């Protein structure tokens, strides 16, 4: 399977076989890192929106593989302020680099950037639409902590309406015969369009606002932050911000091998007392960001197949 | 036999150039439209008649064709009784033939519409519009934070479902229903 020059824009662009192949390469890279694999390659990091984990892990992954990085961490210091279009910014950047990672608040910006560029473009998050590299690292975390991807009972809790990581992971896991549990207040429930797709794929799902209702069923609980920045009305945010908290008393009624994941940053949705339990997988999950991004860079730059 | 006679009668009327197409007005108090109330729409000698438009899309078709700027005769009727679609609209435009682009746009809001090309009061050609699989730069994305609403870029949509219509933006990947559709 050849990923050279391939764009990574949406998890929906990848088949089950392609996802499994990527995960296989991540494992190879994690076990046997090749330090000079990307020597002489240059990655442009275009972050029009703040990011800590995604940006730093891409920079770290590139530099650990011997490559170099140029770019910006916010759009304040760019020609965007002068009214330059995204299309022109990308056409200019592709002259300076071998690959582009872009994060942008507008949805579909990654797709447009990929159309503008002749070099590979990786979407590092476009508004509340897609964040495919996060999804691949979420899948890798599940694979590493559960030993499999097939037939798992996966719960999602928190902001399922705006949470792009949830939408992408739901679509990616739908290749692997899961049972889903969507736990959220009605106003933040998963959009109907995703449920329509699951229905068509004959995937079982349950919807509830009660955190404890299905707690004994779960193999994975994917917790998300209520995202303040996605709420048009601050009063609405105040209503929901502390609606669920995963704490030690919740863990009394779960499977022993339940793993709790979170794309981070967390606010109050997972109590710190959970960190030291065998259920916490979220820091491990963040650490997998490095091998996952190394693998993706090596794949799109044609250094591994 | 009976049907043939009716047809012949219609043709004779056309030839006399004074034909009026009669459409029964839907009377809410009389669901079977037995009322004798009728409205008439003048026939056109040359132009286009778009028929079998769902009533709620009649004015969208008028918008697509930019009829507010058209110099020739324009007749628009909506909420007409139709055996095949229940309630329909008709748009008649004198002195205008449609471009393929206009036909494609009409197919999005009125997938069952027929386009009749009229010459000298006769139907010269009848075209059944075809609902497309891909919509290129016709529909505006309803998502305000979609890149297409913020940069100069042609919109692209995939038709996910034809009935009821559901389309997906190529860029922001949001689904849109018929009610969200706004023609560019």
N-end to C-end Cα span of chain B: 47 Å
The CATH superfamily title of the largest domain in chain B: Aspartate carbamoyltransferase regulatory subunit, N-terminal domain
Overall pLDDT of chain B, averaged?
A: 80
Quote the beta fraction of chain A. 5-15%
Q: pLDDT below 50 for ≥5 consecutive residues: which ranges of chain B?
A: 1-36
Give helix and strand order of chain B, one letter per element, not per position.
HEEEHEEHEEEEEEEE
- Sheet with the most strands: spatial strand order of chain B: 4-5-3-6-7
> What's the CATH architecture name of the largest domain in chain A?
3-Layer(aba) Sandwich
- Rg of chain A to the nearest angstrom? 19 Å
CATH-derived architecture of the largest domain in chain B = 2-Layer Sandwich
Which chain pair shows the most residues in contact? A-B, 18 and 16 residues
If helices are DSSP runs of H or I spanning 4 or more residues, what is the number of helices of chain B?
Answer: 3
What's the CATH topology label of the largest domain in chain A? Rossmann fold
Distance between the termini of chain A: 6 Å
Biggest sheet of chain A, in brief?
5 strands, parallel
Q: What topology, given as strand order, has the largest sheet of chain A?
A: 7-6-5-8-9
Shape category of chain B: globular
Low-confidence stretches of chain A at least 5 residues in length (pLDDT < 50)? none
Query: Based on DSSP secondary structure assignment, what is the total number of beta strands of chain A?
Result: 9
């Amino acid at each position: 399977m050849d990923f050279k020059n391939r764009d990574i824009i949406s998890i929906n662009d990848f088949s089950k076989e392609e996802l499994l192949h990527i995960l296989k390469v991540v494992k190879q890279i994690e076990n046997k890192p090749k330090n000079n694999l990307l020597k002489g390659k240059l990655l442009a990091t275009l972050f029009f929106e703040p990011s800590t984990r995604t940006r730093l892990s891409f920079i770290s992954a590139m530099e650990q593989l011997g490559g170099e990085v140029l770019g910006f961490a916010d759009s304040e210091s760019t020609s965007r302020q002068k009214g330059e279009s995204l299309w022109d910014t990308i056409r200019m950047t592709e002259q300076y680099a071998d690959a582009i990672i872009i994060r942008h608040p507008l949805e579909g910006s990654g797709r447009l950037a990929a159309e503008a560029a002749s070099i590979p473009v990786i979407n590092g998050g476009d508004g509340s639409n897609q964040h495919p590299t996060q999804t691949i690292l979420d899948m890798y975390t599940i694979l590493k902590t559960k030993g499999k991807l097939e037939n798992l009972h996966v719960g999602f809790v928190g902001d399922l309406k705006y949470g792009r990581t949830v939408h992408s992971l739901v679509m990616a896991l739908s290749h692997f015969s899961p049972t889903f549990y969507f736990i959220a207040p009605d106003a933040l429930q998963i959009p109907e369009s995703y449920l329509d797709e699951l229905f068509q794929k004959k995937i079982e799902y349950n919807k509830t606002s009660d955190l404890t209702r299905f707690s004994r069923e779960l193999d994975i609980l994917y917790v998300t932050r209520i995202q303040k920045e996605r709420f048009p009305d601050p009063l609405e945010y105040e209503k929901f911000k502390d609606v669920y908290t995963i704490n030690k008393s919740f863990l009394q009624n779960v499977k022993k091998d339940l793993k709790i994941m979170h794309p981070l940053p967390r606010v109050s949705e997972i109590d710190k007392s959970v960190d030291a339990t065998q259920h916490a997988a979220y820091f491990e999950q963040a650490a997998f960001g490095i091998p996952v991004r190394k693998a993706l860079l090596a794949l799109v730059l044609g250094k591994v197949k | 036999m009976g049907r043939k006679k009716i047809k012949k009668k219609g043709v004779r009327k056309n030839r006399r150039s004074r034909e009026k197409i009669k459409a029964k007005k839907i009377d809410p108090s009389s669901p079977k439209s037995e009322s004798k109330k009728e409205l008439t729409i003048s026939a056109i000698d040359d132009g286009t008649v778009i028929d079998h438009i769902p009533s709620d899309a009649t004015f969208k078709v008028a918008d697509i064709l930019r009829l507010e700027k058209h110099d020739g005769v324009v007749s628009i009727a909506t909420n007409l009784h139709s055996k095949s679609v229940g309630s329909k609209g008709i748009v008649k435009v004198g002195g205008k033939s449609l471009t393929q682009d206009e036909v494609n746009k009409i197919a999005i809001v009125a997938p069952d519409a027929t386009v009749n090309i009229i010459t000298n009061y006769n139907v010269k050609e009848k075209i059944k519009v075809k609902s497309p699989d891909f919509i290129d730069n016709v529909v505006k994305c309803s998502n305000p934070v979609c890149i297409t609403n913020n940069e100069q870029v042609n919109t692209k949509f995939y038709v996910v479902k034809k009935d009821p219509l559901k389309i997906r933006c190529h860029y922001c990947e949001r689904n849109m229903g018929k009610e969200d559709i706004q023609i560019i």
